[in-house]
What we know:
Helix 8 crosses helix 15 (353-361) and helix 20 crosses helix 22 (607-632). The protein is of the alpha+beta class. It is 50% helix and 12% strand. The protein starts with 8 loop residues before the first strand and ends in a 7-residue tail after the last helix. A hairpin with a 2-residue loop joins strand 1 (9-12) and strand 2. Among the domains are: 9-142 and 381-411, no CATH class; 151-208 and 356-377, no CATH class; 216-346, no CATH class. The protein has 25 helices and 20 strands. An eight-stranded antiparallel β-sheet has the order 14-16-15-18-17-12-13-20. Strands 4-3-19 form a three-stranded antiparallel β-sheet. The protein has a three-stranded antiparallel β-sheet with strand order 7-9-8.
Amino acid sequence: xxxxxxxxxxxxxxxDQVQLNTGADLLALKELDQKLWAALSCPTRGIEFxxxxxxxxxxxxxxxxxxxxxxxxxxxxxxxxxxxxxxVKGTDSLALADINDSSEEGQQLLASARHILRSLGKPDAxxxxxxxxxxxxxxxxxxEFNGDGVICAKQIADAGLxxxxxxxxxxxxxxxxxxxxxxxxxxxxDKFFTEAAAYSDWYAKGEADGMILFLNDRTQAAADAxxxxxxxxxxxxxxxxxxxxxxxxxxxxxxxxxxxQRLAAQDLSVQSPEVAAFPLATVEANKxxxxxxxxxxxxxxxxxxxxxxxxxxLLGKKESLSxxxxxxICLKFAPLEVWQAGKPATxxxxxxxxxxxxxxxxxxxxxxxxxxxxxxxxxxxVKAIRSVERLLRYNRDLFKLANNFVxxxxxxxxxxxxxxxxxxxxLDGRSCELCVKVEDVAxxxxxxxxxxxxxxxxxxxxxxxxxxxxxxxxFTAGDSDYLMVGRNGIFYDRKGQDxxxxxxxxxxxxxxxxxxxxSPYKKLxxxxxxxxxxxxxxxxxxxxxxxxxxxxxxxxxxxxSSAAAAKxxxxxxxxxxxxxxxxxxxxxxxxxxxxxxxxxxxxKFWQIPLAMLGLVLLISGPSMGxxxxxxxxxxxxxxxxxxxxxxxxxxxxxxxxxxSLTGLANLPEGAHRSLVDPFADKKVVWPYYLMIVLAICVLxxxxxxxxxxxR
Length: 711
């Protein structure tokens, strides 16, 4: 369906961009084909924008704001304002009269705004600002009920109920309330009372069966004492039965002499595992278990407890225990073991059955549920308080975001920096305005290379290295002659803070047509200079080797007792090779120049300027042409895509716009300049004489070839 909204577009960066001027433009964005948007996604970090606002817009919390999330934020904010044009102002305050209270959400939000102002001592205020919301967290945390469904012990006035809550926290887990205190929610309460009821029912079953708690409240202690010796006592009676079966087994079953000999070599104690591993008593056929003497010393304490808590109540005082009596005791504890095997898994046992029954017997669960219900009843009101802050942030930031997302209006108008421009780099006599934050230099550079922009990656530090970040700065004017890894500069972030910046990587691309024009000549001069230096160094090395060889040989032929030989006189002939090499190079260059000059002199007078222009174009033309095509194709998209954006348009940086992004050093208007340099190089006169001689030669040549009409 065709859009009913009348859109306006402006052209910048080689593509049409929507012009957002009114609140109606913002509300109609849902009708605009997203193929016309400049970007479809941007990261929530690494850009110059309020991160809290971005986090509110980022509904799925994936650290990226997408087009549909922007539309949802605009729709929500526009629905709560009487006039969406308020969003265009971008202020951090909002008049209460501008809030649309025609909906239930709007009414709740307006009531919350007034409640906040009253709490701040401004009941008659007609507007609310983000400054009023600075302590919103403290404000919400200070409420008796804050809507999070968590009840803390300290907010309960009743001492008994407060103690119950503390017991629940001790036995079960806890959650943090908005106030910062730990409390309980409905899930924890339900878990506690469910486990408490199950434990109480299980315990009641044991109480109801006389075969289970046969020693009443002392049964559990007796069971613990029984279990402590159960396995070892069973082992003893089994060994005695084997001795009755075969008398020969009695001695080895009691452990051999060799076993005792191995123990004799050690430092023994009753806690020694080796001692505890021996039988409970010496083994004989059908021998009762001695209870007072003849017990393995490692087990004496446990046997004493068993006698006191089990044998004495059941059999009275005894000096020994027969196998049949032991079997009877095991049968006695069998129902108890079955009952204990069915004990619910819970941490509530530490409270004791009496405290558990006391909690279950009171009306504590209902009272706590009532407090939670009261807390949850204000959830909508508390959410409305947070919605006030959300609306204030959207009111301030949405229009700015749209002009850096739907279009790149801020970037191309230059009135203010785009949100992806993190600051300005000053380096090599230039200021670079297009600087983006980079997390991984290598990863960013590999993709940003497709932008065709000359990028200098810098590591920036401040506060003695406590703060660090990396940036990519675009050089779009001047040249790259002195851009090299290791060069230092100063980076100013959007807050005006200065950082020490050092180049760590360069993505080299043409910067300007002027650079491309001079590039062949600079390369030629550099090549000639390097070749001359190499040739001279080679000849100098050869001469030095010959001199060293001559000195060594003369030293060998000299008498041992003679004085040191006199320093040989300077031999011009030995350096003739160097002079000859330099002369050869100069002669070759002169020959080339002579050929060019003779060719020019062979032309007519009016043809000479054309020939010289053609020569210049022949040398610089290809470089300039290639640079021109590359500069025309420069694209911001890969630079931002590498930083986590989803750029939807071909955001070009043409030559005029690129020039505006990098400032060159110029003297201030009206400044006075002295051309007298006391440290300037002394002027050499002979080049001027050489130029005069060359001019005379040219004039003679012109006369000879008939340019002055003598023929």
